[in-house]
């Protein structure tokens, strides 16, 4: 297990290094002068040159990359030119909205997907199975931002159960904040629950054809009992990978939903930073999101190896 974990850690560390190179290169080859975009077209050459020195844009690109990586490793993400505050402070304020939103959406996805997948697999080709699979197909095909607007139209404008957007801040209390995150979490969880339910159903159906399940059935267990007691645990192995990938997507891919509901999270921060060409914020936040994805992938691999001993065995 330790050898497997070390191999995966080295592989993911190299992935993070490669991602940092790609992020730095992409943000620095975008056409246009970032300093002139920040200051406006009417800025004087002296002001543009001063901003170049402040941002380090007058240095060689390799020196800029080394300085940027060194700052990341020491916890110094730089100072946002737009907000005039350290980027670490901006991230610290925004992550406590994006992270609970991702966990909330993932919890809703699991709570919906697991019963749906088990019910669908227990009655294959029945009316229940066809209905659940049809709904999951609709959930995958439906754009989440459009579904989010439908939720606002129904629950905010028509029924007045939830606010249409905004975030009261955690100082307002736990339940008001979770209420503000409910509609965005539902909008994010819909396609993820649909995917997870279909994967779980397919995995369960594969397990039901295995010898150990047939042996359990021969001993007198019903199909539902054999599914819950024997097939479900083995079917969860590929589902773990999907859950890990979904959390990474929910944390890093909620930009549109956060803008629909006016949530001041990391997604909205990146969106505004891109529009304002605040390269310091863009680079730091994107690297942080990549780091989160890498860490979640690493933990998912460990969970996968713990559930499937075959991954821990050394083969020639």
TrEMBL record:
Pfam families found in the cross-reference section: BPD_transp_1, BPD_transp_1_N
Annotated ABC transmembrane type-1 domain residues: 95-300
Coiled coil regions in record: none
Lineage: superkingdom: Bacteria
Entry's transmembrane regions: 12-30, 62-83, 95-119, 140-161, 235-261, 281-307
Gene Ontology terms for molecular function: dipeptide transmembrane transporter activity
Cellular component aspect of the GO annotation: plasma membrane
Keyword Cell membrane carried by entry: yes
UniProt keyword list: Cell membrane, Membrane, Transmembrane, Transmembrane helix, Transport
Matching PANTHER family: DIPEPTIDE TRANSPORT SYSTEM PERMEASE PROTEIN DPPB-RELATED
Annotated family: Belongs to the binding-protein-dependent transport system permease family.
Name of the protein this chain belongs to: ABC transporter permease
Organism this protein belongs to: Pararhizobium mangrovi
């Amino acid at each position: 297990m330790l050898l497997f974990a070390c191999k995966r850690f080295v592989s993911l560390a190299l992935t993070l290094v490669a991602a940092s190179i790609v992020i730095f290169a992409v943000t620095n080859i975008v056409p246009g002068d970032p300093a002139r975009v920040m200051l406006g077209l009417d800025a004087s050459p002296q002001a543009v040159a001063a901003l170049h020195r402040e941002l380090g844009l007058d240095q060689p690109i390799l020196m800029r990359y080394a300085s940027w990586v060194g700052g990341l490793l020491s916890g110094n993400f730089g100072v946002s030119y737009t907000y005039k505050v350290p980027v670490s402070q901006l991230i610290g304020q925004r992550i406590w909205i994006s992270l609970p939103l991702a966990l909330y959406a993932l919890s809703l996805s699991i709570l919906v997907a697991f019963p749906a997948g088990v019910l669908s697999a227990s009655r294959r080709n029945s009316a229940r199975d066809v209905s659940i699979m049809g709904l999951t197909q609709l959930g995958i095909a439906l754009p989440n931002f459009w579904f989010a607007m439908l939720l606002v139209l129904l629950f905010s404008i028509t029924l007045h159960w939830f606010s249409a957007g905004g975030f009261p801040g955690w100082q307002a209390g736990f339940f008001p904040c979770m209420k503000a995150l409910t509609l965005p979490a539902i909008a994010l969880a819909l396609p993820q629950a649909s995917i997870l339910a279909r994967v779980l159903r397919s995995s369960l159906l594969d397990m039901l054809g295995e010898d150990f399940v047939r042996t359990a059935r021969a001993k007198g267990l019903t199909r539902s009992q054999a599914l819950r007691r024997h097939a479900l645990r083995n079917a969860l192995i590929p589902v773990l990978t999907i859950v890990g990938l979904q959390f990474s997507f929910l944390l890093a891919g909620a930009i549109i939903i956060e803008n629909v509901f006016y949530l001041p999270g990391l997604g909205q921060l990146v969106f505004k930073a891109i529009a304002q060409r605040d390269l310091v914020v863009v680079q730091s936040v994107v690297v942080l999101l990549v780091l989160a994805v890498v860490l979640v992938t690493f933990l998912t691999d460990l969970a996968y190896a713990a559930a499937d001993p075959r991954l821990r065995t050394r083969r020639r």
